[in-house]
Amino acid sequence: MSxxxxxxxxxxxNTCSRALAAFLVPLDGEPLVSHLRIVDKYSVNxxxxxxxxxxxxxxxxxxxxxxxxxxxxxxxxxxxxxPPAGQEAYSYVFDLTGEIQWDRPEQVQxxxxxxxxxxxxxxxxxxxxxAYVRLQHPFYECKEKGSHDEKEDVKPDGVLGTWWHExxxxxxxxEDLNLVVLRSAMVYGPYVDYGVVMCFIAVASTYGxxxxxxxxxxxxxxxxxxxxxxxxxxxxxxxxxxxxxKIGRKEANSIAGEEILFKNDKSxxxxxxxxxxPDQKCVAPAFNIEDDSNTSMADxxxxxxxxxxxxFEFHNFLTNMLANWKLEENVEEIxxxxxxxxxxxxxxxxxPVSKLHYTAYMDLYHLKKHVVAFNATKLKExxxxxxxxxxxxxxxxREVIDKLKAEGSWPNLQxxx
Length: 417
What we know:
- By secondary structure, the chain is α/β, with parallel strands linked by helices.
- The protein folds into two domains: about 5-190 and about 230-295 and about 370-395, NAD(P)-binding Rossmann-like Domain (Rossmann fold); about 195-225 and about 295-370 and about 400-405, no CATH class.
- The chain has helices at about 15-25, 55-60, 75-80, 105-125, 160-170, 195-210, 230-255, 270, 295-305, 315-325, 325-350, 365, 375-385, 395-405; strands at about 5-10, 35-40, 65-70, 90-95, 130-135, 140, 155, 180-185, 185-190, 215, 225-230, 255-260, 285-290, 310-315.
- Helix 1 (about 15-25) crosses helix 7, helix 6 (about 195-210) packs across helix 9 (about 295-305) and helix 7 (about 230-255) crosses helix 13.
- This is Nucleoside-diphosphate-sugar epimerase-like protein.
């Protein structure tokens, strides 16, 4: 036996699991695990979701196995924990399951976020896995001021945020589950194709192309908009698993436990199986992860637009007020310039864009104000995690764009970033 742990990644093929898989089993270098199973609803051959250029190479590694599965079915979840013949039981579970589309109805969120995580969590507890790391996306409305640490009371953002948060309470209530919650800031990085930052990058590139300033709908204010590189999300999840495996849930709770407060409609408790009573105290070790950039929206805008050779500005008060008053009605008008310029960039690309995947279209969620700020001091001090990409800057952006150009999913224009 190698002495290395075995691991399963559930879900997240459309968010961070590809980066996590590449972190655990790198294309060059020694793998961190002896066997890795990845489970999601998508097909990888042929692909039914975007995979990026490197993930298919990870899947070719002999110790990596991909299973396409419907995780809403209890028996399917159970079978996913059965290791291959001659293989030890799985040591670590990385839970990246959950619906990330903001406009899905509540019943979809309950079925594909809450229920799926419950099935996976219950089975993991039954199998006595050494560590169960749950990735929590920044689906919260943070305050502009405050400590921004794990104890700060933040409000879930809409239906999406409510059920992602409820999922944490449910997992925390499962006895004998070696749970660690890792809550991320806004994710960006090579082959990341979701979230506000990557959309912002695409739109900023169109303003660089037409050599016009990019203007935001929201006044500058403090407006924290904190970021984290996808490689640090992966590294943070691994560090949390290693930390938990050495001490177990009881000690982890005493060191890093945080109460996960009830933020839902009390009437739902009787309707949703597995939902925890509002007055039940739910505690789990929880950590934030973000880089050291500490960016405001203005900072982030300036970093990204300057990379594309333009500037970041704000509309005047009256324009902001009118746009936000009827934001839903103005979505298409706001996008008209972005999308037409992006289309022109693709048409002029040399070499041609062969994978029409990224877009400069900003939907209603991307256009709304998002305040995201999660102090990550605790992860560094308690777990000892050291950031691999501590700053979002022109170097990290160049790495992202160069890799997308190389795979043919980003327009390549003479003399442009």
